[in-house]
Task: inverse folding
């Protein structure tokens, strides 16, 4: 058994980006496909996404939203209706120009049947959904319109990284229309809070809610709100965004309604989304040098039972005991669903099998041998603790406490991540310290730097440009819970009324 | 209230294709989008699809399959690997040729960044999934590989019809690899039976399982099995297919493994799928001249409660009673999930509101007024029966019987559809009768014809071509439960060993 070394090579400290790739491989979450920039999400990774979907979908429905489905393709002219929007997405979109393949002069297949108007594979759906909303909304009685879509989208990224940045990714996009500015703002904030609750309570990933500065806004939005999380390399991950679109898209798509006084008005719209990028966030929040750690509330399987096998008749009572135990565990509820249990009877070395599950991040692993059966007990490993901390427990006691143990793991992961994050947020008030904070001490490890800097800012994009150029640092957000506080901009020395978060980011 | 007339104009008898469009509109299921051939699935239609997904997904998982996700795009060269496959799909595929838009000479945006190799938007994923399987499979220990994908696919159809034939549609595609021919055949048949069970037990849609003739096979398959249902215009709808792909795709994609003796072999593969087309089948199996009828097991909502409103203080006790009733109903389980209930307090004429729900096909509608409250009873309408058959029932009794009533509706829908289908299947043994059976009596109603003809066939494609040309009739399938029976081909008079199903089809 690999006890001296770590299961993942390199470790986080040795090479964080490579560690990330290796965890994905070791946990069998996803891999690159032969199609440039597109990933294949493998069963364990997809099951994580299904659990994310299950929980979020319920939260969306509980807040009054309904799912619908809109076309994959967006006519070029639709994208062009909102000037900033098309500027933001034109550079990175897959363009469909033909509708068949036919044999060319040399007998090889070439595109044929040119389209009158090119179609863009949706990078996001404001414009096509806007066109439908314009048909659906006539009167204030038709509002609010609260729609969500689960879909694939394509943004042609040049440099891709599994889950974090891929040409095609899976996401949900909420799109709503309202009769007043206030109601649309309330929706924008409500969904931001839904994302925050999901991130913290299910992903066990602490996040900071805030507003983006103008330079980081969604193309076409009036205001963009976000949740930002700190990864273990102290870089920020934007984990979800909620946009107040004002009347920009309703004017572009002609979403008009008669208000209660009979006056024609443009609707106020919002959009909000999270994607498979969340899985990248989950990996980098909780993973350790032995691989992935999955928060129990999102775990595809909560518990694996590993019978200690000898390949002879003596295995039978062990299998029987494990089978019975699995049945009993499956009857226990955790977080509103029955506990998911695997019994791993595969051939192969016991140590390799245990480690394969550790690398997959399963919350609890039980190694069961003859002696456990004799004492009617189980030998419990918790993924959030070290192998040395495994403990024996009478079977009955384990059954009655298993939900509690899972919830303890869930809470422990959150607390651990929060402690790490909080200890790497620093209030910085001088330019010198700011530059030092973000300059790696070791040139070989450019990724190791300070963390989040909570600083005063003059509100001008010049400062943003400067720190981006010098340090590759951006303002991640203006935190919603920040108290007004007068001070001087950390870079320019000009007046400032509140602190913002500066960080390197994914 | 529209009691004399039907809620849908035209009726099924007057104009079946137009009736179909009008039912979709009246039930607010879907509509055409501004993107050629692509539909928008609206909340009530999408909720049907979600329920279809929920049930099928469980059936797939219970038979050992895991979900995964593969790229939307397929390189042209992948499609070309299997000769029949590319021939089948090249004529109708969306081709991505560029990866950005940029301003042309006149300032308008034009496609730019031409791809080295065109990408096809997946019409189906055998080739891209095959490429991944080739990497994942090394030894017989890696088999069987049992994967399913829920995805959107694109087939550039020239003539489209909502749900039945659209350029983009939603589906699931199962893809499996096995070490032996027998096991792959067993899988092909197993999934066909899963589809049949789903269609009959959940959609309440009777189906015939059978094998397709060579001319109707999936491009690249060795054998294609299908479930065929009869719509109310007596045309056939292919509702699901399961393909035995032999070693065709494993040879094209190099899916090879070492068997237990160390010999290298090509894997045997299968694929199987159903799509949003099922919703078209549901509409045309159960819908009547008042609109959609949704089988309770797939209903987005089972029951709507309609308080009889006067727009004054007298509404309060009615709302209270209805709210309490809704809460009680939601605590009742039906088919493994809590009953879904809507309380419709919208303004507007009571009659219009009832009819809006009838058109949506909700299984049970309750109209509740002051007198019902006084007698502590409910006034029940069943969507599978006429308005005249509404009945009162003490509230307590209704609560204890509601699951039973829902299941009775489910069974009634199935029996009704089965009786209709069976009464329109005819054994035909002469060419004259065959032509008469499929020739509309009334030229103005070309869709009204005989139904399914169960006939002897010589096994040759010449007969298929002839009846397709003369009558637009094809062999829908060679039924799996057909008994061997010697006879003479109904068209050619040549020897035949069993009957097949001829029909017009969607």
Result:
């Amino acid at each position: 058994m690999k006890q001296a070394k770590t299961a993942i090579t390199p470790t986080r400290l040795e090479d964080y980006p490579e560690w990330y790739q290796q965890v994905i491989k070791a946990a069998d979450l996803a891999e690159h496909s032969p199609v440039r920039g597109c990933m294949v999400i493998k069963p364990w990774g997809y099951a994580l996404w299904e659990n994310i979907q299950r929980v979020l979908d319920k939260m969306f429905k509980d807040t009054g939203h309904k799912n619908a489905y809109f076309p994959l393709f967006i006519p070029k002219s639709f994208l062009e209706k909102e000037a900033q929007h098309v500027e933001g997405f034109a550079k990175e979109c897959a363009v469909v120009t033909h509708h068949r393949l036919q044999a060319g002069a040399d007998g090889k297949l070439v595109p044929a049947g040119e389209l009158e108007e090119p179609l863009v594979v949706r990078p996001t759906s404001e414009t096509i959904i806007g066109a439908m909303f314009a048909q659906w909304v006539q009167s204030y009685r038709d509002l609010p319109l609260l729609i969500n879509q689960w879909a694939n989208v394509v943004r042609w990224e040049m440099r891709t990284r599994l889950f974090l940045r891929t040409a095609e990714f899976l996401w949900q996009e909420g799109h709503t229309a309202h009769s007043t500015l206030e109601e649309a703002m309330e929706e924008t904030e409500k969904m931001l809070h839904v994302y925050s609750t999901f991130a913290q309570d299910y992903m066990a990933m602490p996040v900071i809610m805030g507003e983006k500065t103008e330079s980081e806004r969604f193309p076409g939005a009036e205001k963009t709100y976000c949740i930002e999380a700190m990864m273990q390399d102290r870089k920020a991950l934007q984990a979800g965004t909620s946009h107040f679109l004002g009347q920009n898209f309703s004017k572009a798509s002609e979403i008009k309604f008669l208000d209660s006084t009979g006056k024609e008005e443009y609707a106020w719209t919002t959009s909000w989304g999270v994607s498979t990028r969340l899985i990248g966030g989950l990996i980098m929040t909780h993973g350790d040098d032995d691989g992935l750690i999955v928060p129990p509330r999102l775990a595809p399987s909560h518990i694996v039972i590993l019978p200690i096998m000898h390949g002879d008749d003596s295995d039978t009572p062990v299998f029987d005991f494990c089978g019975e135990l699995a049945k009993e565990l499956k009857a226990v509820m955790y977080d509103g669903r029955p506990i998911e249990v695997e019994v791993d009877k595969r051939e192969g070395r016991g140590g390799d099998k245990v480690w394969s599950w550790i690398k997959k991040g399963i919350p609890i692993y039980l190694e069961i041998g003859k002696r456990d059966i004799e004492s009617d007990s189980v030998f419990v490993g918790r993924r959030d603790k070290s192998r040395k901390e495994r403990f024996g427990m009478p079977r009955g006691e384990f059954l009655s406490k298993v939900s509690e143990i899972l919830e303890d793991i869930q809470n422990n992961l959150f607390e651990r991540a929060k402690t790490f994050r909080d200890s790497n947020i620093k209030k910085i008030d001088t330019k010198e310290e700011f530059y030092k904070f973000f300059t790696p001490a070791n040139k070989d490890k450019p990724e190791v730097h300070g963390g989040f800097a909570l600083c005063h800012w003059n509100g001008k994009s010049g400062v943003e440009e400067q720190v981006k150029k010098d340090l590759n640092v951006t303002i991640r957000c203006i935190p919603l819970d920040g108290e007004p506080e007068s001070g001087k901009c950390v870079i320019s020395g000009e007046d400032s009324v509140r602190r913002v978060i500066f960080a390197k980011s994914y």
Notes: The two ends of chain A are 35 Å apart (CA to CA). Chain A has a mean pLDDT of 95. The longest strand of chain A covers residues 109-121.
